[in-house]
Amino acid sequence: MSNKIAWIWGSHPLLACAELYAQDRLNLDTFFAFNQHGLVCKSDQTMAPLDQFGSLTRQVEVFQAIANPVQTTDLSCLIADYLSSNTSKKVTFGLSIFDQTGLWNQENENLCQLVKHNLSQKGLKSRYLLPGSANQLNAAQVISNQLHLSPRAAEIVLLCQVDKCFIGQTRQIQDINRYRQRDEGRPYRIHQEGMLPVKLAQIMLNLAQVKPGQSMILDPFCGSGTILQEALYKSCPVVGTDLSRPSLEKCRANLRWFTRHQQTVQRDWTNPGFQLFDYDAKRVADLFAPSSFDAIVTEGYLGQLFSQSPSDQSINQELNQLSQLYKASLRSLFTLLKPSARLVICLPYYLQSKRSLLKLIVDDIQKIGYNHLSLLPLEMAQHLRQQTDQDFHSYIYSRPGQIVGRQIIILQKP
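Structure (tokenized):
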């Protein structure tokens, strides 16, 4: 196996890097190259299961790195040589080009034709797949044609920088249908609660350094149970609390559905079980013994839902009320964490006015005793040339049209 791995991500590059770093899959010593689509790093480890990472779309085994710009004819010969070395039978292939330079924006079909021609000269029949509107194949094309599994099929990935182009074959790809099943298949999805995305729940668990099959997880604002579900997916025992009894009943139904669903689709999955309690997060320390949990992962209450941007006065009132809730809750949760354990939480962030609850409670977080961790070490964050607010100590997760976004922070008990 190659000692270079390319990770391709979706819409949140910094969050993807933070997720990889938290799971010991990325550091400066192993880092080779980076652009807005993904990164290349050295890896002596076995390939991590991609379905455990919410921010990543592909894992690619790199087989060649060449200086860029490169001639199309030379590139097509390299790809044809690689494909012909793996089989003597008919080859099905497609190209996905992740290009920082713009040089390859219109070259996908031309390059495929040249590769097909070179394969024909080697006596190999072939067919190629073309992407739709983008320059990359979609997950459905890769999965349905087994371009990541079959020895006679391949998705060839080009990750191009200004000075270098990395060429590899996709070994794992994000199965969007499984995410859709775990999201839309649940009996209850509570729109009024803002519906935490399944992928974001998975990312937060990884930021908390949850160990599959081992970590005991608490979500003190569990709502309909998205975070608890994704922790169960990792075979971790989970505990959820919430003040809303209707939400808890929906959560219970969702988790029962998930355990049945998961036992059907993954026969070797271990069901670690779940517990739910009708309890106030501000007093949750009364419910459990100190140092009971390996991680606390939660989306806190984000405040009332607004149909239009609220006035400054409304935001002030909302933040003042929320600050009291969070100060008390964080104080109670601190005692429940084991030493060195992490608390990963989403706080409300008003996107238009850039008003943050974090700024109101940051001093209290320190007084309680938490360490407020950076998403990435400073030298790595600077190297990756990403821009966030607050020097990489938080990440604003939002989508177009939202009024209140999610500000993700990582806290650690010393």
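The CA atoms of residues 39 and 386 lie 13 Å apart. The mean pLDDT is 91.
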